[in-house]
Amino acid sequence: MKYIDVAIDNKSEHTDTLYTYGCGDDRVQIGQKVYVPFGLGNKVRDAYVFRISDKPKSEYKNLKYAEALDEEVCLSREIINTCCWMKRRYLCKYIDAVKCFTPAGSRSKRGKERNPYKGAEGEDSGVPELTRQQKAALQPISEAIGRRLHQRFLLYGVTGSGKTEVYMRAAQKCLDEGRQVIMLVPEISLTTQIIQRFIGRFGAETIAVLHSRLSPGERHDEWTRIRTGQVSIVIGARSAVFAPLADIGMIILDEEHEATYKSDMTPKYDAVEVALKRLQEHRGILLCGSATPGVSTYYRSQMGIYKRLELTERYNQVALPQVEVIDMRDELKAGNKTIISRALHREMESALEKKRQIILFLNRRGYSTFISCRECGLVLKCPSCGISLTYHKEDGRAVCHYCGHEEEPPALCPSCGSKYIRYFGTGTEKVEEQVNALFPEAVIQRLDLDSTRRKGSIEAILKRFKKGRIDILVGTQLVAKGLDFRNVGLVGIISADVTLNIPDFRSPERTFQLITQAAGRAGRGEETGRVIIQSYTPDNYAVRFAAQQDYKGFFDAEIQLRSYMGYPPFSDLIQLVFSSKEEEKAKAAAELWYEKYADALGQGERERIFRPQPAPMNKIKDTYRYCMLIKCPQGKRKTYTEALRQIKDTEKIKKKEYAVTVDINPYSFV
Predict the structure, then answer these.
(1) What b-and-e string marks burial along 657-669, b requiring 16 or more CB atoms within 10 Å of the CB?
(2) Predicted TM-score (pTM) above 0.85
């Protein structure tokens, strides 16, 4: 007889603890999925084993027994340790952490393997000779892999400098040592290019893919291939960090600066932190790569926490693209009221004449950003969220980008009856329409969330662009990250100011990164590319340094500001969001937690806890939200989160009419 402590697969906060059961099957292991009777009705539930003992810790009355073991799902001891760590670090439930590691879907009833990339074509361009800088970067990485050292590397390389080749050589070293690799990319749209390159180098049979665009069945089968040791390399977006590999030698984070590596759903984990936790147990290395590293990451490389490796030259020796900033205020003065400046128009004409491709980037989808009545000033808003609706001309609908509410735009103002309903602002749909009018002979395609709803549509568009069948690609940040196309001669950044206006201390950093990354898509072939940046605030330091392609200049200015304000990396920011169907209850809950938390930390720390305020997005899906921000100084994170955990534990036993979520170092404060 074994005694097992299990986490029950149940949504309630009240059951977030380990329950003891008897188990008559001696094959039971830590991490095993088991089926147990639970609650008054003894309904059979899924559960996961966290501890096993031969003797009971105490005398149990009415001890219940596990009914069966799941022969297919058994998590490793390292994974269970990581789940316990996630519960402490992110204040999530046991089962929330466990579900990050368990497969979606189920085994095919027909026994058919669902491999989403079976038969995929690899990009076989041979094994290129490394540059002097690539060799210098690879040497310490290979040495750490060979000696099974747990180390952190930051590969800081300009766009087009050959970071991917360094990744693949390091992966080969891991495979030579009999170890396994996880390759993370920030966007699903980038997985296809990476997969093609890795398949071309390592073969399809050694690679598994994990991301949210796969069907549940495909994810289940990929998870099974990984757990049973059939593959050595896992490629995917953020969630691939949870791949159940047995011996992880390296985890690579391409474009490590991207906000998509931070989860915005419970548990609100950071993929970098989870990667480091797993690698500590496996004695593996973390390799982060970027042309625009996160300010916190670069600072840590200066402090020696990461070993920084630099690639300062493009692989093909072609110069970085020539960048020109256009002041859109001058365009207005000159009578140009369109979204395409005169300079960008000239450069587009020139690029098309030379048969070179163009990318136009605007980080805002839809046609118009809001609909308003010119007579009374009414702005059409979502009834559930209270924010302005975005007009999508292609569908003829006004859409809320938060809850998905849709409605037909009114012909008359619903407030005053006026017919002067107008559409304001610009999204990618309007850019596509205006560019079509300017260049009717060109083949134009839009790449954003609206144009890629169907499975495989992102890959199809990028394949057409790669083959030269699209002249102009208009898109959101999907076109700005990591894509490598040799014939792109011009990149136009329609509005560099979109991200500057977000109420977030990181908005200058995001603006700098997006401009630099978008600009980096140009001139990756044999000829120097051109970049046109359109801005209404061309003197902003983020825009200025991005135009100069001067990361270190931007970093020096930004880190000075962060130090003065006490922002990360000089602190941890903790955001609590209280939500309820009734606004007063959300507000009261926030005030209650504020007082309890201030008392728990003591008088000296009260100034670091900011009084609750209505969230910038105060209402989403008919739910009201209040937020509380805590600025945790360096070295005190454990103290601050432990105080939160104690309040959470005492409050969860009460019947509440509100929910609270905790987000440590969030990437969005709305």
Answers:
(1) ebebbbbbbbbeb
(2) yes
